[in-house]
Amino acid sequence: MAEHLKAQQSDFDREGFIAFATKDLSKLELKQRSGRITEALYKYLPEDFSRAANILLGILNPDENISISDQGTSDKGVSGWLVMPMCDYVAFYGKEHFHLSMELLKEMTKRSSSEFAIRHFLLSAPVVTLAEIMNWADDENYHVRRLASEGSRPRLPWAMQLPDFIKNPAPLFPLLEKLRDDPEEYVRRSVANNLNDIAKDHPDLVAEIARKWMKGASKERQKLIRHACRTLIKSGHKKCLEALGYKDAQVELIDFNVLTPSVIYGEGVEFEMTMTSESNEDQALILDFVVHHRKANGGTSPKVFKWKTFNLAAGGKHKARKRHNIKPITTRRYYPGLHQVEIIANGKSLGRKDFELIMEEVSA
User: Fold this and answer.
1) What is the end-to-end Cα distance of the chain in Å, rounded?
2) pLDDT tens digit sequence for 197-238
3) Angle between helices 83-93 and 98-109 (to 10 degrees)
4) DSSP character at residue 78
5) Which of 83, 132, 285, 312 could staple 112 via S-S, CB 3.0–4.6 A?
């Protein structure tokens, strides 16, 4: 990065920049490392943002359509992870230069992603920023089109939330509709994630969008809608399930057994079930299961897991077997004692069974 900056500005303090940017870098996490490099850019680039902006544009890799897997800094220019601190530099210091900052973020996202940085502008200048994003939805570069959706997600993970869009997501709908049939799945998946964010606060609204979008939908759009509705499907949201063509499940669970009534932590719970149709018509079914994890206070906390989708013939029978691992993960702490596994069809509970989780004591 320093070599490219030096090539753009002859008096750039290459050694000072490297020393500042790399001080104790190995002790820092990813975002902290990025923040250190952003500080170094602020310290060693010209104070005039316009001059600094031209330098940053000049060091970008000239290739605009680099795939995510191939992005990285080379002798041609900067792309990949090193664009992250550059985007933050624009977010922190470019607010008084809106149009120039938009140009920078648009170019930077082609070599990485500006999805975190654009949110600073959506918070400080929402109207003009959203208008700019709407234009990006028509851009020939798929990275830019994807940024329009991903950067405007109300609840983008690891990023600042957008409270206005959480409260009222309506301004996003024309944008998402414009991108729903994008030729790139990378873009369509971002649209689905945006809608899934919205569904957490406005479930009925997203169910209605799903109903409208399913009319005449291509296979690609249907896939988008199902992914967008994944949280609603897991929660058994009736309107959403109906929009996707799933009616109330007319089935009976005639056999349900936990094959591992005692599970040692690190192994898995295994169960099997048999259901029969009580309908005189074929049924489209979404089969999920819920693990009710024991909490420290003795209560339980449910977690829904996707299992399978299938069509059950009128009067037909379906058997299934599943193993679910109970192993260490960073997002959950396990406690010994009784847990439960529950079978769900189209959001309807069919039955629960207990199993005991055994936590082996660790020797001192």
Assistant:
1) 49
2) 999 999 999 999 999 999 999 999 999 999 999 999 888 899
3) 170
4) B
5) 83
Burial of 362 (0-12, 13-18, 19+ CB in 10 A): exposed
Residue with tokens 């191939």: 70
What 293-302 contacts at long range (C-beta under 8 Å, 24+ apart), as own/partner pairs, is 293/332, 293/334, 293/335, 293/339, 294/334, 294/335, 294/336, 294/337, 294/338, 294/339, 294/357, 295/335, 296/333, 296/335, 298/337, 300/339, 300/340, 302/342
pLDDT value at residue 70:
72
* 112 and 81 Cβ atoms separated by less than 8 Å: yes
CA 189/CA 343 separation, integer angstroms:
28
Beta bridge partners of 78: 60
The structure tokens listed for 54 are 């031209």
Q: Which residues are CB-contacts of 361 (< 8 A; sequence separation ≥ 6)?
A: none
Q: How far apart are CA 142 and CA 228, in angstroms?
A: 20
Calculate mean pLDDT across residues 239-253.
Answer: 94
Residue 150 tokens, joined: 């991903």
pLDDT tens readout for residues 49-107 = 999 999 999 999 987 777 776 778 889 999 999 999 999 999 999 999 999 999 999 99
Distance between CA atoms of 199 and 194, rounded to whole angstroms? Answer: 9
Q: Which of 167, 237, 232, 242 is nearest to 199 (CA)?
A: 232
Whole-angstrom Cα distance, residue 176 to residue 44?
Answer: 40
Instruction: Give the number of other CB atoms < 10 A from CB of residue 138.
Output: 11
Q: Is the pLDDT of residue 353 over 50?
A: yes
Q: What are the pLDDT digits (tens) for 286-312?
A: 999 999 999 999 999 999 999 999 999
CB 217 within 8 A of CB 223: no
Does the structure show a pLDDT above 50 at 364?
no
